[in-house]
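Quick start: read one record
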Amino acid sequence: MHGGICLNGECDCRQGFSGKFCEVTQAVPDRTNYLLLLKYFLLFIVMILLIVVFIALTVFIYKKIKEWNDSRPLPTPPRDPRPADEDDMAGAAIPYRESQYGQNPDLQ
């Protein structure tokens, strides 16, 4: 009974059972380490809180940097100190004539 092995009128019972046919239940001490489980649970809670604080600080810093960047004036582009030559403008405004069929009329 209850997983015991009986030979020649004597039974070898599993832990927690006794008696002639393993019919008597004995109290088995609980070996669960609740203090260790509590430590792991608290460590888990602390890690979750640290992650939440890290995310909140990141969002706060992002908003402050964005606010600071939005309040700054835009930089003016640097001006070219040399005057524009015709050589600089060569080929910049070449007209391209098209025929009604989309081809260059000079090539027809």
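The longest helix spans residues 34-71.
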